[in-house]
Specification:
It is built from 24 helices and 25 strands.
């Protein structure tokens, strides 16, 4: 860019002036000639008259020059600059917005009267830096002012706090006498922020509350039903009244709770202690606690949006086993509570309804794909086989996506291999991708976390999905499943599938080889029916026995070779205790995929040690660490490993940590245990 010369316009202005004078002079000389020709006046008198006319002509020329030069002057004219400078300075001084001028380093060199009023009038701010006045640097201010004049939109500046007030600061770079300066304009937004906070605090929050196990408890003490329900309602009413909220029962044992958003943080800070107060309500000789599930929506939007999300949060709380609060935020979902074990529901109505819904979906589908979780076990493959039998009964082609060479499920696959229907039913994930059609149904069993699916890519590409699982739900899905049957109170996925088959298949509709596979899955997850069992567990086992399941033959599934025995022994060589009640075992060398099973067995055995309430077994395979966790009944290991991206249920859980070392995994596990103990 070329620099302007302050003398560039002078020749033009001079020429304009001379031209005006010459025109006036020519006019008067012409007048002189006329007078001399027609007048008899003396030449001296005429000359005097003309001299006066010339003086008048010069004065007129100067006035015309001044008029036209004022109209045509350039803003950069040096005669106008002082005028504009004085006007600008006076304007900034009297401007109601605070203005501060800094040098490039952020040092204050000048500020106007409005800023003096905003700051402490007695405080001298010259030579101080801008970040000593506000919680923002001059570089941060300039970051938000990079838009060019040609931009359609302009930045609003950066928000900062100064003198306990909120300002929106916008900066402008200027250059004067070769030096760079920054002019900052401060627009106060304190009142606006206070109003925004008030609106946010007074926003209506919708919560749904449900007594989730009163029906089951009342089966034993029916006459005390209303008394227990009244106690719970009184506690909930007291909770609502403490924050000026509204609690209404819209259905038996179901409530809607409306309150202001400001109190939600208080509830979270107190860890929703209302759960503990309700849990103190005991019924019957067994002193079983009453529990509630709460779904809360904290999203922005209409009341209809909040109502829908609050309902979804309540469903999620129930699918995770109840006795907890689920808070749905705009970008994430938070969980609180979940301290008690779930109580099995004795009714099989839901199993029959789900079986009918799934059968209808299968009948409409072109084909059915079935999968479990990565690193499958007998519960996963057994449930897959049970769903495949249901699809065959509906007359639909079914395929199971699994690795046939996986040592953990070879025995189950070998058991059903002699059946003609299973000759080509098992496919890998690549082949499964080629089997996807527009009307394909995907049934996922024994897992609800998309990160743990056997083939996540297939789940992303299939339009219709059904999920059947007994683990607590860990979050939302990208696409809502057509059927979601998540029942944490069940002992295993095989138990859920067996109940569905009992409702859908005729007597004798299940082959004994298939019954053996389902029975093996139940034995695995219940530790030979010694843990996490209920009336429905044994009812499902009885159904499988009636369909030909042979416990003696199923025991062969669990036989281990000498190599497996040695793998388990490696974990017993490196055991540490943490907080006097947690046993942590680690493999002393890099493991193989088969070591995952050994880790699970090692975690089971550690529970037999006196004083151990929960156990964890860690094994490093390549660049990842696998964790198996087991609980004796008082520690919820699912909540602990959920902090590490894992999942499971109350007494058994697992996690998979990718790209971490054994030391890092151990540190993360201890942190998760500390966090659990702090909250519980």
């Amino acid at each position: 860019m070329s620099h302007k010369n302050k003398y560039d316009k002078k020749p033009l202005v001079f020429s304009r002036r001379v031209m005006i004078v010459l025109i006036v002079a020519v006019f008067f000389f012409a007048l002189y000639g006329v007078l001399m020709h027609f007048s008899e006046l003396d030449a001296l008198i005429v000359g005097g008259v003309m001299l006066v006319c010339l003086v008048l002509a010069e004065f007129t020329a100067l006035k015309l020059y001044g008029f036209f030069s004022f109209r045509m002057a350039d803003p950069d004219d040096e005669k106008l600059s002082p005028i504009l400078g004085n006007i600008t300075l006076d304007f900034i001084l009297k401007l109601y917005l605070p203005v501060v001028i800094c040098d490039e380093s952020g040092k204050i060199i000048w500020y106007n009267n409005a800023f003096t009023g905003a700051a402490n009038p007695r405080e001298v701010l010259y030579a101080k830096y801008i970040d000593s006045v506000a919680d923002v640097t001059i570089d941060r201010i300039l970051e938000d002012t990079s838009a060019s004049p040609d931009d359609i939109t302009y930045p609003d500046g950066v928000e900062a706090v100064a003198y306990d007030r909120v300002f929106r600061i916008k900066g402008y770079k200027i250059t004067s006498q070769g030096k760079n300066y920054i002019i900052t304009v401060w627009n106060e937004r304190t009142e606006l922020k206070q109003l925004a906070k008030r609106l946010s605090d007074e926003e209506t929050i919708i919560a749904y509350v449900m007594i989730d196990n009163l029906d089951e408890l009342m089966q034993f003490v029916q006459e005390k039903y209303r008394a227990a329900a009244a106690q719970v309602e009184a506690i909930l009413k007291e909770w609502a009244d403490s924050v000026g909220g509204i609690l209404k029962e819209y259905e038996r044992d179901k409530f809607i709770f409306l309150f202001e958003a400001r109190y939600l943080d208080e509830f979270i800070e107190r860890k929703f202690d209302v759960l503990d107060r309700i849990r103190e309500v005991r019924i019957g000789e067994g002193s079983m606690p009453v529990t509630v599930s709460i779904g809360i929506s904290r999203v922005k939007g209409s009341l209809a949006d909040k109502d829908r999300d609050a309902h979804a949060s309540l469903d999620l709380a129930l699918q995770r086993g109840g006795d907890q609060v689920v808070v749905k935020n705009t970008h994430n979902t938070e969980f609180y509570g979940g301290r008690t074990k779930t109580v099995q529901k004795r009714t099989k109505v839901r199993a029959r309804v789900i079986a009918n819904q799934l059968s209808l979906c299968m009948a409409k589908a072109n084909n059915v794909l079935i999968m479990g979780h990565r690193n499958p076990d007998y519960d996963s493959i057994g449930a897959c086989i049970g769903i495949a039998r249901l699809a065959m009964f509906c007359g639909v082609k079914a395929n199971i996506v699994a690795d046939r060479e996986d040592a953990n499920i070879k025995s189950a696959i070998a058991r059903v291999a002699p059946l003609p229907e299973y000759s080509d039913i098992f496919v890998d994930s690549i082949t499964g991708q080629d089997m996807i059609h527009s009307d394909t149904l995907l049934v996922i069993v024994d897992v609800n976390n998309p990160a743990q699916f056997e083939a996540p890519d297939i789940a992303d590409n299939v339009g219709m999905i059904a999920i059947i699982d007994h683990h607590r739900k860990t979050g939302d899905y990208k696409h809502e499943p057509a059927i979601s049957y998540i029942e944490p109170s069940a002992s295993s996925a095989c138990e859920l599938v067996s109940e569905m088959l009992e409702q859908a298949l005729p007597i004798g509709g299940l082959h004994r080889e298939e019954a053996d596979a389902l029975y093996a899955g139940m034995l695995l997850d219940t530790k030979q029916f010694s843990r996490n069992t209920g009336v429905r567990t044994f009812s499902a086992a009885l159904y499988l026995r009636s369909e030909g399941a042979n416990p003696t033959e199923v025991q062969w599934f669990f036989k281990s070779g000498l190599e497996d025995f040695m793998r388990e022994a490696k974990f017993s060589m490196n055991v540490v205790t943490y907080r006097q009640m947690f046993a942590i075992s680690m493999s002393d060398s890099d493991g193989t995929p088969q070591d995952r099973v050994a880790a699970a067995k090692a975690a089971d055995k550690l529970l037999s040690v006196s004083g151990v309430m929960a156990s964890f077994a860690l094994v490093q395979i390549d660049d990842s660490v696998h964790i198996s966790a087991r609980s004796a009944g008082n520690i919820n290991v699912q909540l602990i490993l959920e902090k590490m991206g894992g999942g499971g249920y109350y007494e058994a859980a697992g996690a998979f940590l990718k790209d971490v070392s054994m030391t890092s995994a151990l540190t993360a596990l201890k942190d998760a245990i500390d966090d659990y103990m702090k909250k519980n």
